Each structure stands twice: as C-alpha cells, then as structure tokens.
Amino acid sequence: MCFVPASFELLGMLLLAPKLMGLSVLEAAVMGAVLAAVSPAVVVPRMVKLMDEGYGVKEGIPQLILAGASVDDVYVIVLFSTFTGMMQGTGASVIRFINIPVSILFGIAIGLGIGVLLAYFFQKIHMRDTSKVLIILSISFLLIVLEDHLTTPITFSALIAVMFIGIGLQKKREVVANRLSAKYGKLWVAAEVFLFVLVGATVNIGYVGKVGIKALIVIAGALVFRMLGVLVCLLGTEIKGKERLFTMLAYTPKATVQAAIGGIPLSLGFACGESVLAVSVLAIVFTAPLGAFAIDLTYKKFLKNKKQKERRAGVDF
C-alpha cells in the first residue's frame, strides 16, 4: 500500500497521457508523479474520525490507509524529483533508479535518528512548544538544502527524513509530539490558503478548457489503475468485499500534493508545464470533493463498527 497503488497510477498515466495529450513518455512520467499522490488533507482527518468512531479499526483499515497514504506521497515526490531531474538533462541511469529506494532508506534512518535525539533534547531542556516547532522547522529546512547541495550519486530523501523526525519524536515523547502536531496544524491553516491561491493564480483557464475532456479521461483512467493497485495489495488479506471497495475509494482524493508540486514543471520551463498544471487543477477540483463524499457516504455501510459490537455484546451480557 506504500507504493504499489501509486506505481499502478503512474503506469496508467504512461499508457494514457502520450496518446490522449500528445506528451512524451518522460513528460507523462512527470505528470503521473504529480497526480499519483493521495491528499493527506482529505484522507487523514477522515481516517482519524473513523478510528475515533470505531469503524474498520479491528481490521486495521483506517490505520492502513493512513500509513500507506503518508509513505505513498513521499514515494511519489521522490519519483517526481527524479523525473524532473531527467527532464533537465541529467539523464537516466541505473544509479538514479537505485538511488530511489536507497534515498528512502537513508531518509528514514536520518529522520528517526534526529527525532530520537530531539526527544531526549526536549526532555533535558524545557522550552515553549513554539520554540520546539521553530527548531524542527529549521532542521527540516537544513535537510532540504543539504539534499539539494549533495553531489554524490547516492543521496537521501529530505522529505522522508522530515516525516520520520515526527515519527521518532512520537515514539519517544508522544505527548510532546501531539502538542507540536496541533501547532503545525495551525500553521498549515494559513499555508494551505496561500498554496491553493498561488496555484489558482498560475493556471491558464483557457488552456484548462482546451484540454478539459482529454484531461478528465486521463485522470479517470489513471484512477482506475490506482484502484486496481489497491486491490492487488489487498489480495490475500482479511479485508474483503465492501471493505476493499472502501479502501479503493479512500485512495482517490487529490489536493495538497498536486497543489504543491503541480506548478513546478511550468516554473522550470518544461513544454509539458501547462498540461501538468491544468491536469493537477482538474484532479483537485474533481477528485477531492468526490473522494471526500465517497468516504463520508460509504464508511458506515462498508465498514464494521467495533464500538457498536462491544456495546451490543455488553447489552446481551
């Protein structure tokens, strides 16, 4: 669930985009890397709600979706960085593809190490949560700059490292991690507004109208591939029938990642830049609300409620 659905969606984009939108295979790969991410802004709060209400908890469905979607997004961003590097002329090589899993592993190790060290640091030195947020932000920016300036064939994924800083901190100091999470949530409220406004400001509405139907077909086709990828991941598990369908639907919303990186190809001067941005915007407009509605309307019908069963068992007793 961490990378198979995204890989399937990328494959679908490689098959559909060149034929329908006239892109090269590498341009289609860039577009696929942008679109293959799931929106944490849509998925995370809904999965947390499901866990609070007890739906699918026994089968581990919301936990599975949460974990899978988080790593899925980072995996896609790493692919996006690789493909844009190829578009800029660095070329394709075996070492670049080997670097993808290696950079992920290095990112996990570095992030966990920093997270654990920060947990001990915050335990020894008491300070306001705001100061802790600033320290973590500073370290995160330093990691990203360091990754950009590394010239070695094998690097590390700064984005994964940043994510695992939080995981390492939560493992050692869960209370502190939860407080800091609330602080970051407040920061994200403002940042999200700026993010989507900037994306909207760069969109060429005329071009969106021109490629609209073809783009929607590409998006829908890629989502079908993604859902097949989710289904493949669930084969052989205890998750059956309607639960599988719910998991497939929960993996469809697009929003934050597409808004964050959808405009990068255009800013880099790629010929496919407008196409990628237009498809990103259409994906956000259609899949974010539809995916959210699909989750909200189906979870009570498709998932079992552990808490209700426990209450009924108590009454029967």
Protein architecture, described:
This protein is mostly helical and 317 residues long. It has one domain: Na+/H+ antiporter like fold (Up-down Bundle). The chain is built from 14 helices and no strands. The chain has helices spanning 4-21, 25-35, 40-53, 61-90, 94-124, 129-149, 158-172, 174-202, 205-234, 241-250, 256-261, 264-267, 273-302, 306-316. The longest helix has 31 residues, at 94-124. The protein is globular, with a radius of gyration of 20 Å.
Short description:
This protein is mainly alpha-helical. The chain has helices spanning 4-21, 25-35, 40-53, 61-90, 94-124, 129-149, 158-172, 174-202, 205-234, 241-250, 256-261, 264-267, 273-302, 306-316.
Blueprint (SSEs and pairs):
Blueprint: H1 4-21, H2 25-35, H3 40-53, H4 61-90, H5 94-124, H6 129-149, H7 158-172, H8 174-202, H9 205-234, H10 241-250, H11 256-261, H12 264-267, H13 273-302, H14 306-316
Helix pairs in contact: 1-2, 1-9, 2-4, 2-13, 3-4, 3-13, 4-5, 5-7, 6-7, 6-8, 7-8, 9-10, 9-13, 10-13
Key features?
14 helices; Na+/H+ antiporter like fold; mainly alpha; 317 residues
Mean pLDDT over all positions: 85
Task: Give the low-pLDDT segments.
Answer: none
The helix/strand class is mainly alpha
Number of helices: 14
Helix content: over 70%
Radius of gyration: 20 Å
Morphology call = globular
- Main pleated-sheet profile: none
**Assembly state of the chains shown:** single chain
Beta-strand residue percentage: under 5%
Give the total of beta strands.
0
What fold name goes in the CATH topology slot? Na+/H+ antiporter like fold
Q: What CATH first level would be assigned?
A: Mainly Alpha
Total tally of structural domains = 1
Q: What string, H for helix and E for strand, traces the elements in order?
A: HHHHHHHHHHHHHH
Question: What is the CATH architecture assignment?
Answer: Up-down Bundle
Cα distance, first to last residue? Answer: 39 Å
